[in-house]
Amino acid sequence: MLKSLTKYRALIALICGALTPLAFSPFDFWGLVLITPGILFLLLQNLTPKKSAWVSWCFGTGFFGTGISWVYVSIHTYGNAPVWLASLMTLAFAMGLALTFALQGWCYAKWLSKSTLSGAGFIGLWVIFEWIRSWFLTGFPWLYLGYALIDSPLKFWAPIGGVWLLSFTVLCISIATASLLTTRHASQRIALAVIITLPCLGFFLPKEWTQASGHIQEIDIVQANIPQQLKWNKNYLPEFLNIYGQMTLEKTQAPLIIWPETAIPALLSSAKPYLSDLLTQLEQDNRSLISGLPSIERDTEHPNGYRAHNSLALLTGKTDIYHKQRLVPFGEYVPVENYLRGLIEFFNLPMSSFSLPAQQQTTLKLGSSKIAAAICYEIAYPELVRKLSIDSDWILTVSNDTWFSHSLAPAQHMQIARMRALENGRWLVRSTNNGLTAIVDPYGDITAQAPAYQPAVLKGSVEKRSGATPYQKYGVTPVLLFSLLLIAVCFTRRQKGSF
Q1: Where are the alpha helices (DSSP H) in 203-267?
Q2: Which residue in 124, 170, 200, 315 has the fewest CB atoms around it within 10 Å?
Q3: In what order do the strands lie in the sheet with 364-366?
Q4: Residue 189 contacts residue 180 (beta carbons within 8 Å)
Q5: How far is 66 from 17, CA to CA, in rounded Å?
Q6: pTM over the 0.90 mark
Q7: Is 154 exposed, middle or buried (0-12, 13-18, 19+ CB in 10 A)?
Q8: What residues contact 142, with CB distance under 8 A and at least 6 apart?
Q9: What residues are annotated to the active site?
Q10: Cα angle: 229, vertex 234, 237; to 5 degrees
Q11: Per-residue model confidence as pLDDT tens digits over 386-436
């Protein structure tokens, strides 16, 4: 059976990779992630490093080709690239990301595959490469295997070690199951069966790692559904701000109102003539407004003499502001700008000239409350959100997923946000322009959600939480160290002459 399975290794790897994203939202066939990594493990047996890299690259191309196909929407629909060019650029992006799998496969075949503990090395190496993807070239922390378990019985490992530990759990089950197909030794079968069943201990883990304060914050979230094609057209600024203003005055009553990422598509100085009456009314009623908007701060050391930021600001009462710390390549800044800017419209997208803040950002202050802020893509960085949320009462993430229309991206983004709530034991509020707008409890479950792709006001509440989960205290370090230990042990158990 295994011989027939491995006859067409590259093709099987490509198909398995392409099927794996079905484990994530919006499909949620999470059991798939317990199968496909094990198949790849079997496909890589007895291969040279070069062939292993090729098969792994095929898996990665299928994985990202399906999983991040939503990039096409922003390139074609909003970047006005022709179909052929948008398709080519999307494929090139997926194939480029797949090089991380190729390197992973090469390293496995070169140093670990000939070991008697090759499965342990495969697991450790996969986790290390997921971590590398969180920071290399600013990072692309998307589609980690652990995200698929957010609705599974295994989810409660997340407060212990974050999404990293869930990925580790997935791989242990998958690789141990695959290994059962190839081993005939009773002792090894028993050991593998133990490994497969160990994650079930998660049923007995504590569910309450953080403590409720009893302080309830009522919130109204405004989802205006502004068309992305018109949003940055200055001629429409008064109309769009009027929409937000009317929805806020007519449909909200909570003491805190939240608008999404760049709901104000202009500097506050330009938008204030259209917002002054609203802000005055809110302050008179002792109500607060938090909104996304672009902002500028002077910086004589910056080449432009200033820094432009994608920001989230408290606009009433004692104001406060947070600047985005992880920018999206091409969406918020253009790498090697002098060469790419102007080649095609995609490289001239609105908001593509933002800068990183000069100083590390902290929580947003709202009275006595501390809010961990994450703008759009930032919520996908587990360690960034962990460090901000450990000193926070709850988490707020704002986004504008209109860039990706009805693709897979909004559901994947929502799933990622839910994982941040579970990891950090905090309530999480997600505000978007057209969905998915929702409130998530500390267990990663959605308690309220607005209908997508239409104007709506989502009413709900969050509760302040204190304390810290084990993941908040120690971060990814324990999982990384254990993964490195597995690799080291695997390396020492390799067959003689295999190095």
Answers
A1: 228-231, 237-251
A2: 200
A3: 364-366, 369-375, 394-399, 428-432, 438-440, 446-449
A4: yes
A5: 8
A6: yes
A7: buried
A8: 67, 68, 380, 412, 416
A9: 261, 324, 376
A10: 90
A11: 999 999 999 999 999 988 888 999 999 999 999 999 999 999 999 999 989
